[in-house]
Amino acid sequence: MLGIDVFNEPHNLFWFSENGDQPAWVDVIAAAASAVYQNNPDLLLFVEGPSSEEAGPAICIPHGQIPEDISAYSIDRNACGNGLDAIHFKSNWGENFRALLDADAAKNSEFKLGGELRSQLLKRLPVEMVNWLLGQPDDSSHNGSHLVFSPHIYGSHVATWQSSPEASPYRFNWNFGFLQDSNYSVVIGETGYLTDQVLDVSFFKDSISPYLIKKNMNHQLFYWTFNSNSGDTGGIRENANTAALVVDKERALHDLFYYKQSSN
Questions:
Q1: What confidence tier does 116 reach under pLDDT thresholds 50, 70, 90?
Q2: What is the reported pLDDT for 12?
Q3: Glycoside hydrolase family domain spans which residues (predicted)?
Q4: Considering the entire predicted model, what is its pTM?
């Protein structure tokens, strides 16, 4: 076993506060981290984002910089002042890490990781456990981290909406890409499509794959699922009675996983 996913698609939880009778997501992460650290500290802890409805800090982007896409986000014109628009991003289950953004940077159009997660974990765990999970605070490479951020991303057949190829990089950067930029491990925990769902196929090939390639994340993906019994995606295998793979999916994943960045 390589790692443990703390909880699948915790869509009713908020990062740092209770939501009705649901605990804060950071409390669940801390409990899981403590158990893993004490029993098998070689394991990785996969953490998804919680409720897609949790807004996170204000995100301000210069007017006209982000393309129109009402399916993926809303834009409040000049709501931030000084020619800046407030952007309210949507997210799939497990995709929303916006609460971890640096709030001051977000107001200045910069997506980067803040210190709230470490601060909140230190209130719940001994410092050695937090450093095991997040890496040493003075190590920007986070090589000692045992945490993997794991968003789920689907097209409109599963999620009922999807972002355009033009808007997807903005959505992905602000929802989770900033974690990759901070040298944390980010692995797409679930994605996939049925081959007869044209929009979903195009979303994978025109939005997800190019983004992962550009961010040098093209090996950091789990396809849901290998077997053919997923009603959402049909899986990679043609059916339960054969080892043959769905040709279109095999080709798309081969091209993604084996993509070589240009030396230029």
A1: very high
A2: 87
A3: 2-229
A4: 0.95
User: For position 37, which CATH number holds?
Assistant: 3.20.20
pLDDT digits (tens, 9 = 90+) for 173-186: 999 999 999 999 99
The count of residues in the chain is 264
Which tokens in the block code for residue 148?
A: 């993997």
Number of domains in the chain: 1
CB atoms within 10 A of CB 187: 17
d(CA 41, CA 155): 35
> Quick check: 226 pLDDT over 70?
yes
83 and 62 Cβ atoms separated by less than 8 Å: yes
- Determine if residue 101 is left, alpha or beta; phi over 0 gives left, psi from -120 to 50 gives alpha, anything else beta: beta
User: How many other C-beta atoms are found inside a 10 Å radius of the C-beta of residue 213?
Assistant: 15
Token duo for residue 144: 């000692």
Element (H, E) at 3: strand 3-5
Pairs from 126-134 (Cβ < 8 Å, separation ≥ 24): 129/33, 129/34, 129/37, 132/33, 132/37, 132/41, 133/33, 133/37, 133/45
Nearest partner of 192 among 149, 228, 232, judged by Cα: 232
Domain assignment present for 32: yes
Per-residue pLDDT at 2: 86
Q: Is 185 helix (H, G, I), strand (E, B) or coil?
A: strand
Range(s) of the domain holding residue 48:
3-257
**Residue 263 placed within a domain:** no
Phi, psi of 44 (to 5 degrees): -100, 150
pLDDT beyond 70 at 43: yes
**SS3 state at 64:** coil
264 located within any domain:
no
